[in-house]
Structure formats: C-alpha cells, structure tokens
Amino acid sequence: MPNLKNHMEEVVFNQMKYVLEDVKMCKCEKCQMDIAAIALNELPPKYVVTEKGVLFSKIDSLQQQFEIDVTAAIIKAAQIVRKAPWHDVAAKAGGAGAAAAGAAGPASGSGSGSAAGG
Predict the structure, then answer these.
(1) Where do the domains of the chain lie?
(2) CA-to-CA distance for 31 and 35, rounded, in angstroms?
(3) Distance in angstroms (rounded) separating the CA atoms of residues 54 and 35
(4) pLDDT tens-digit series, residues 34-81
C-alpha cells in the first residue's frame, strides 16, 4: 500500500536546524517538536503519495518564496515557544495534571494557533 506523507514536515525539520542555530532558546526535543507543530499549522500541507509526487514537491520547495514562508513560520513558532516553553509549564504543574495539559501545546491560550491544531 502506498504511503501518504506531508512533505512539509520534512521541509520544516530540515530548515529548522539552520534557523534555530541563531536563536537563543531551549532546543530540547520537546521545544523543537512544539516549534515544528506550530510552524506546520501555519503552512499549507504538501501531501505526496508517489516518488513522482515527492519530486514535484521538492521542486516546489526550491522556490524562494516557499523558503521564506517556511523560515518565517519557524521563527514565529520559535518566538512563541521561547516565551512560554511548555516543558516548564508542565513541570510546574506536576503529576497527572501536567500530562493532561501537555496535549494542548505551548500556545493553547494565545489565540494565535496551537501545537494541537491552530
């Protein structure tokens, strides 16, 4: 059975490595996943099924505006997570409440989208 993949995930994670090099913030796995989730919610999905679809999507990702949009979404997401790292909030809440609250993501009360589904 063919696999369905959002090529945008790969693009965001690859670009995030370079963008976050110059950002002073926590870069733990949790914060990086929160940044990726927020950024992906801001960007249009690029679903592909076949190798041909992956190639067309990669060609699209070479466009300058596409790269600018991805970088801007990552920077915006990093600013949100830097202001309120979710692992700090979850650790302070402690116990089962932290695990239950963790599903909402760092931007759940900001009104600007969240890692859970903005």
Answers:
(1) 5-102
(2) 6
(3) 24
(4) 999 999 999 999 888 877 667 666 766 667 788 899 999 999 999 999
